Amino acid sequence: MIEHAEALAIELRLARRFNLLGANAFEESQIMSLFSNTRAIMHRHEDAYFSRSQFRTEERDKFINTKLSQWIATHEKVLKENGSTGFYIGDKVTLAEIKTAVAVDQLLNELYVFKGFEGIKKLITPELTPNLWKVRENVLQKKSYKDWTGSAVFQELKDGTTELLTLSIVSSKNILDQFFSKSNSKGTGVEFQKDAFCLWNVNLGMGASCTYPRSRRGASD
C-alpha cells in the first residue's frame, strides 16, 4: 500500500491512475490550470471565513464580490467556449470537472455556507451559472462517481467529516479569535486552524487525507 499525506498528492496520483489529465501534454496543462484555479478559490474561501472577527465582514465581502465572482466568470467563459457542454476540454470528465463539481457542492453546502456567507447561494444557481451547473451534473451522473459516492467507504468518510465540521464550527472560531487576540497584526489563521482541525482541505469527491472516518480517528485527531 502506498500512503500519501497531502490532498494534492492524492488528487494528482488518482487523476493520473484513472486517466483524468487529458490525452496529451497540452490538455494536461489546461486541466491543471483550471484545477489549480478552483483549488485556489477554495483556499480563499477558508481564508475569508477564518480571518479575525474584526476583519471577517471585509474579507467575506471581498471573497464573494470579487474573488468568487471572478472565478465564476472565468469558468463560465471557458465552458461556454467549449460549447456549453459541461466539459472544459472535449467531452470527458477530467480532474478539473471533478474539482469544480466538488467545489460547487462545498460552497453551497449548509455546513460551508456559514453565517454571513449566504450570498454565495445567490451567485451559483442553474439560471445564473448554467455551465458550472452542467459540470456538476456531468460529474454526478458519471457511473464511477456514483459508485464511489454510493459506497460504504465514502459514506463513512462523509459522516466522519460532517461530524467534525459540525462539532468544530463554533469551537474553531472561538479558538482562532483567542489565538489572534494576542496579536495586533491582521491575519487569517488558516495555518493554525489546519494544524488544529485539518478540515479545510477536505475533498469529498476524491477522499483526501484530511477526511477522517470516525472509526479511524483517535484522541490526537
Write up this protein.
The chain is 61% helix and 0% strand. It is mainly α and 221 residues long. The chain has 2 domains: 7-142, Glutathione S-transferase Yfyf (Class Pi), Chain A, domain 2 (Up-down Bundle); 152-216, no CATH class. It is globular, with a radius of gyration of 18 Å. The chain starts with 6 loop residues before the first helix and ends in a 24-residue tail after the last helix.
Order of helices and strands: HHHHHHHH
Described by strand count, sense and barrel closure, the largest sheet is:
none
Oligomer designation: single chain
Q: What's the mean pLDDT score?
A: 76
Q: Could you say which structural class the secondary elements and strand pairing correspond to?
A: mainly alpha
Distance between the termini: 22 Å
Strand content: under 5%
Low-confidence region ranges: 182-221
- CATH-level-2 architecture of the largest domain: Up-down Bundle
- For the record, the count of structural domains works out to 2
Q: Write down the CATH class of the largest domain.
A: Mainly Alpha
Count of runs of 4 or more consecutive helical residues: 8
Kindly provide the radius of gyration, computed on alpha-carbon positions and rounded to a whole number of angstroms: 18 Å
Helix proportion range: 55-70%
Number of E strands: 0
Could you write a compact summary of the structure shown?
By secondary structure, the chain is mainly α. The protein has 8 helices and no strands.
